[in-house]
């Protein structure tokens, strides 16, 4: 004797009735499968299969659909007027890294058995935030951090928005403060441009 639940009530059902219901479901599935095979439209056949699976409560957990090669991660969205400026670094897609462009942090801590990988990542984040805050509204490119032995070199493109005296002061101030905090020599390799439009690679 088999039991089944309906509306929070338990009903008893004989094995004969259960076998008869299973046989009817199997016969119906065979008839629909044969009909689906004779259909010329793949979309109609797929719809019939889904309807049959839902009707017989045999829907599978995996869903197979058409592969869509649409990658949007790490890409800038195209504007309607195509007036968004992109630098060369920003214009390169993620799969172009190490092909058309290099990494923004050059060190050996991310290699196999590398040392101080987590500390290096935190220090690089701190250096970038300190550069953007110290050179307020003047940093036009990505901050490139290159580590060689105990020496840190920082490269960036700066806009010529302040006088030469202030720029030399910020240069020495940044190198001195970072050297004291990181306990190693720090050198800034800055390149200046008159206007931010000079580093625009393309518009999207």
Description:
With 204 residues, this protein is an alpha/beta fold. The protein contains five helices and eight strands, in the order ββααβαβαββαββ. The protein has helices spanning 15-37, 42-55, 88-91, 117-134, 164-182; strands at 2-6, 9-13, 85-86, 105-106, 144-148, 151-159, 186-193, 202-203. A four-stranded mixed beta sheet has the order 4-5-6-7, with helices on one face. A two-stranded antiparallel ribbon has the order 1-2. The protein starts with a strand and ends with a strand.
Uncertain segments: 9-15
Sheet having the most strands: 4 strands, mixed
Average of pLDDT: 77
Class inferred from helices and paired strands? alpha/beta
How many β-strands, per DSSP? 8
The coarse silhouette is: elongated
SSE arrangement, N to C: EEHHEHEHEEHEE
Radius of gyration: 32 Å
Termini separation (Å)? 70 Å
Number of helices: 5
Q: Work out the strand percent.
A: 15-25%
Put the structure in a nutshell:
The protein is of the alpha/beta class. It contains 5 helices and 8 strands.
Defining key terms:
204 residues; 4-stranded mixed β-sheet; two-stranded antiparallel ribbon; alpha/beta; 19% strand; 38% helix; elongated
Summarize the SSE layout with pairings.
Layout: E1 2-6, E2 9-13, H1 15-37, H2 42-55, E3 85-86, H3 88-91, E4 105-106, H4 117-134, E5 144-148, E6 151-159, H5 164-182, E7 186-193, E8 202-203
Parallel strand pairs: 4-5, 6-7
Antiparallel strand pairs: 1-2, 3-8, 5-6
Helix pairs in contact: 1-2, 4-5
């Amino acid at each position: 004797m088999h039991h089944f639940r309906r509306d929070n009530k338990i009903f008893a059902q004989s094995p004969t009735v259960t076998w008869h219901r299973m046989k009817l479901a199997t016969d119906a599935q065979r008839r629909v499968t044969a009909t689906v095979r004779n259909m010329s439209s793949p979309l109609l056949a797929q719809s019939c299969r889904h309807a049959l699976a839902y009707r017989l409560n045999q829907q599978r957990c995996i869903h197979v659909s058409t592969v869509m090669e649409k990658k949007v991660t790490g890409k800038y969205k195209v504007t309607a007027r195509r007036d968004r400026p992109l630098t060369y670094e920003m214009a390169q897609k993620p799969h172009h890294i190490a092909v058309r462009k290099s990494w923004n942090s050059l060190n050996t801590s991310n290699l196999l058995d590398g040392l101080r990988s987590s500390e290096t990542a935190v220090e690089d984040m701190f250096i970038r935030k300190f550069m953007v805050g110290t050179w307020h509204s003047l940093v036009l490119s990505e901050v490139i951090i290159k580590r060689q032995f105990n020496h840190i070199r920082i490269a960036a493109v700066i806009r010529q928005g302040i006088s030469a005296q202030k720029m030399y002061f910020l240069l020495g101030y940044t190198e001195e403060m970072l050297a004291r905090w990181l306990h190693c020599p720090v050198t800034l390799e800055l390149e200046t441009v008159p206007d931010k439009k000079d580093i625009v690679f393309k518009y999207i």
